[in-house]
Fold this protein.
Amino acid sequence: MNRLLSIVLATCLAPVHMLFAGDLATAFTQAGANRTQIELAIASVPADERAGMEWLVTHMPEEDLRTLDAEFLVENCNHAYEAWRTAPWHDQISETMFFESILPYAS
């Protein structure tokens, strides 16, 4: 029982970017020839937006992974974070809600 509790706690307390590591590998594979653009998007966002970009990449449809460029992804990620950070309701929106409801782009 203690081992199970340790695993659950470790998962819950792990940095967000570590939770997506396996999914990123899958996303990179699905991106095919566009992998460089996806990797560039992740590398180009500020450090405090990296978890959001990684979440976005791991939740993108395969078609978007294969076609969207880094500039589009970074620009949309930056705008989403700016909107969230400057909104009067910022403190009422969790990071999870931000990832699921504000961060996603429309392609």
Observations:
- Residues 89 and 96 are 15 Å apart (CA to CA).
- The chain has a mean pLDDT of 84.
- The helical segments are 2-13, 16-19, 21-31, 35-44, 50-58, 62-67, 70-86, 95-102.
